[in-house]
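Handout, page 2. Input:
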Amino acid sequence: PMPTVSGTSSRPVPEGEEHRAFNRRPPLARIAVLLAGPGANFLFAIFAYWVLFMQGIPGLKPLVGDIAPDSYAAHADLRPLDTIAAVAGRETATQEAAVLAILDGIVGEGAVPLVVRDERGATRELTIRVPEGERRALTEPGMLLTGLGLSFWHPAQEVVAGEVAASGPAAAAGIRAGDRILEVEGRAIHDRDAFVAAVSGRAGLATRIAVMRGAERLEFDVVPNSVEEEGRTIGRVGIVLPPVAAMSYPQSMRTVEHYGALGAIAPAVRETWEKSALTVRFLWRMVVGDVSTKNISGPINIAQYAGLTATEGFTYYLAFLALVSISLAVLNLLPVPVLDGGQVVFQVAEMAKGAPLSMKAQVLGQKVGIAMLVVLMGFAFYNDISRLFG
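Output:
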């Protein structure tokens, strides 16, 4: 019978070309073929970052905004208008770099050493500490900064009630759509995040909310409803806020990392390596339960982000494609039999044994691999649908 190309196709190999069939090649040659796919993903990511670094990657400086009272950030002595200069010994020039480094430290040791610089330029060292039982909750999407009790500085924006639910506490107290929210319990409200955080922490408690209605300042006593969300009890008053308008940051807050054609090669390789290593660490921490599985995204969420970044411009879209490419490469290198990484394990086992694994062992491996992928895709689709309708 004519040989077939194992692992790539079931079509017969033409006569005279049998020596070129995948299963006829030495194990090292097969490993090279299996690694070519993930390797292409890594090369694309490097190319994408090379283009981005030549064009200039924009970012915002990690300038701290509000600090929630009695929060992890407050206990660490992090203060408003501090600039996060370094996290765990690594310089953080942008908000993205600071967030990723803090997240990595939180799910690792739970103690994150920071070097911050105040308004006068004086530096000091401090450490954010999170108890072991609280760390996993901070890894859920969008929960890190809120859970730590800090936000990055951004230009003040008016908080105006878009809609007020007729049966909600705000409507019962007398707040109307169009009212501009000034204060919650005497604390000035400069943006919607501050308002949501202030109300969320006062479930079931009488809360004084000051608003501006036309030219008149009014104050209302509102008791937020208690709502269970993500295993926590939070307050809700029945006010729907309109979408956030685009923020105009001053030039002093902006930063651009830019290199020439040759100089961009090393940063592109470094960025690809660091993102890949971070992905591997987080995948492992999901397996051991340190990181929430809600971070797994499927095709629905990926498509949404693709559309969002495409509307933001070429730079954001290309950066998104680089991240997707890295994720695909790492996923394909996992030691799961139906993936390239699992096939590499089979080839290494053959080299150690001196003979191919039995067909029974390979079929069993394929079944286990398919089951693992089905579970993974189930998580991904569940998360996508939860985000879509939640």
